[in-house]
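2024-03-11 09:14:02 INFO queue: dequeued item PRC-barrel domain-containing protein, len=80
2024-03-11 09:14:02 INFO validating residues
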Amino acid sequence: MDSVPLSSLSDSEVMLADGALLGTLDNITLNPATGDLEYLCIDPSGREPGVFPRMENDQIVVPVDRVEPGQEYLLVRPPD
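2024-03-11 09:14:37 INFO prediction written
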């Protein structure tokens, strides 16, 4: 992922590469030992195709290495 200020990502829409809306970015987790970003936590739109795991609170968890910033949204590559 290119260098992007985290504050600019707040409440961004997150979409799959095929245009399916996953939901809205709620939180970003990081590794406390290294400071590296690890996961995006996304509030689902209700139409998520089930390609990423979910947390107990139903948020979708997407590894940061699957994310590419877009102009108006974050683009996510599905798992291989």
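2024-03-11 09:14:37 INFO annotate: The mean pLDDT is 82.
2024-03-11 09:14:38 INFO item closed
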